[in-house]
Amino acid sequence: MGIEDIPEIEIGYELDQNYPNPFSIGGGSKDGSTVIDFKLRQAGYVIGVVYDLLGSEVATLIDGEMSKGTHSVKFDGYGLSPGVYIFRITSMGQTKAIKMVLGK
Hints:
Helix content is about 0%, strand content about 55%. By secondary structure, the chain is mainly β. The chain has one domain (about 15-104): Immunoglobulin-like (Sandwich), CATH 2.60.40.1930. The strands form 2 sheets. The protein has a 5-stranded mixed sheet, with no helix packed on it. Strands 1-3-6 form a 3-stranded antiparallel sheet, with no helix packed on it. A hairpin with a 4-residue loop joins strand 4 and strand 5 (about 55-65).
């Protein structure tokens, strides 16, 4: 008896780290933004929310049906305190998260 290959469970999407990271707000202007890329393997409902480290919702960036393929979403940190934020994406019953750092 040998060891059988166990098929990998493929997550229905890929979530890349935001860029730039860290991102910052310079001189009070609205340039404190970052981009988050993700790829859906099939069309479906997607929700993407930014939270602070206390678990409070800061912004909903995605909430609805999306097509299969590569997508980008922009997050503007203007008006937020410097610190660490979490972007959490949920689709097809699966959740992934990334840590984003907002500087001054």
